[in-house]
Write a structure and sequence with these properties.
The chain is of the alpha/beta class and about 250 residues long. The chain has a single domain, classed as 3-Layer(aba) Sandwich (Rossmann fold), CATH 3.40.50. Helices cover about 50% and strands about 10% of the residues. The protein contains 9 helices and 7 strands; from the N terminus they run E-H-E-H-E-E-H-E-H-H-E-H-H-E-H-H. It has a 5-stranded parallel beta sheet, sandwiched between helices. Strands 3-4 form a two-stranded antiparallel sheet. A hairpin with a 5-residue loop joins strand 3 and strand 4. Helix 1 crosses helix 8, helix 2 packs across helix 3 and helix 4 packs across helix 7. The radius of gyration is 19 Å and the shape is globular. The termini are far apart. The chain binds adenosine-5'-triphosphate and magnesium ion (MG). Magnesium ion (MG) binds next to helix 1.
């Protein structure tokens, strides 16, 4: 059986990663009629749960100076790598081997961009060396201030890493890490995410479609009647309605 393709969506917080990953899944399932699985990192698994509580600043320890400090950044980086290996073994790899297209909302590139704020990038690459290489990574490029406006419209709390000056550095880290990955032959495409959702989605589909419309993909498509295609219940308010307004940026 032909393996499924592994597609990763990346970007700074508020760049639209989750929005576009959901839209991509919906398109692959309903328009291309292919089996597709959407997943995310950190995961909902045991290590991912711990990471989420740390990012929400709900885990830490009193320091020698009496101040509350979050976990050491190197330990956090190891947790991300551990969560990722677990994710690969219990979820991603079996799905790919079963011929399912897997979309991952954040993956190794997120670790390289975010954790390299405090940790050496080469070491981050080493601890993530057992990860499989995506067939395609899409990086949504959005100015940090625009991402901040979107975030502020969407929620009220600020997570670790999410302050805008930090995200300026994260954006820079992304570009450096992308250049490195490309030198090593990985396919990473940069998409301008500072545009209406439908335009961003259209550009992502233009990158993804040729990857999926291989011989095996077409054969699977013929075998699968459209009525049986999995459907997503998730919808964004008013987004599909004609003349629907998008959040201004
Ligand atoms: N192209 C776009 N134009 C305007 N608003 C957008 C666009 N894409 C996403 N948004 C809005 O921006 C907000 C953040 O989007 P989303 O949750 O997808 O970002 P994210 O990158 O996944 O963030 P995080 O990394 O924090 O999960 C949401 O309210 C979403 O509706
Ligand atoms: Mg998200």
């Amino acid at each position: 059986m032909e393996k499924g393709k592994f597609i990763v969506i990346e970007g700074i917080d508020g760049s639209g990663v989750t929005t576009e990953a959901v839209k991509l899944k919906e398109h692959i399932a309903t328009k291309l009629n292919l089996p597709v699985h959407l997943t995310k990192e950190p995961t909902d698994g045991p290590v991912g749960g711990l990471i989420r509580t740390i990012l929400a600043k709900r885990v830490g320890a009193p320091c020698h100076n009496g101040k509350f400090e979050s976990i050491d950044p190197r330990c956090l980086a190891l947790l991300f790598a551990a969560d990722r290996l677990d994710h690969l073994e219990v979820d991603i790899r079996p799905k790919l081997e079963g011929g399912v297209v897997v979309i991952c909302d954040r993956y190794i590139l997120s670790s390289l961009a975010y954790q390299s704020l405090n940790v050496d990038r080469r070491w981050l690459e080493q601890i993530n060396a057992k990860g499989i290489t995506p067939d395609l990574t899409v990086y949504l490029q959005v100015p940090p201030l625009v991402a901040e406006r979107r975030r502020n419209q969407a929620r009220w709390h600020v997570e670790l890493y999410e302050e805008t000056p930090k995200l300026e550095r994260v954006s820079q880290n992304y570009l450096e890490a992308i250049a490195d990955l490309r030198k090593r032959g990985q396919r990473v495409e940069v998409v301008d995410g500072n545009r209406p959702m439908r335009e961003v989605h259209r550009d992502i589909m233009a990158l993804v479609k040729p990857l999926l419309t291989t011989k095996a993909g077409s054969a699977r498509k013929r075998r699968q009647p459209p009525v049986d295609a999995p459907r997503l219940d998730i919808a964004f308010a008013g987004e599909n309605e004609p003349g629907a307004k998008e959040v201004p940026v």
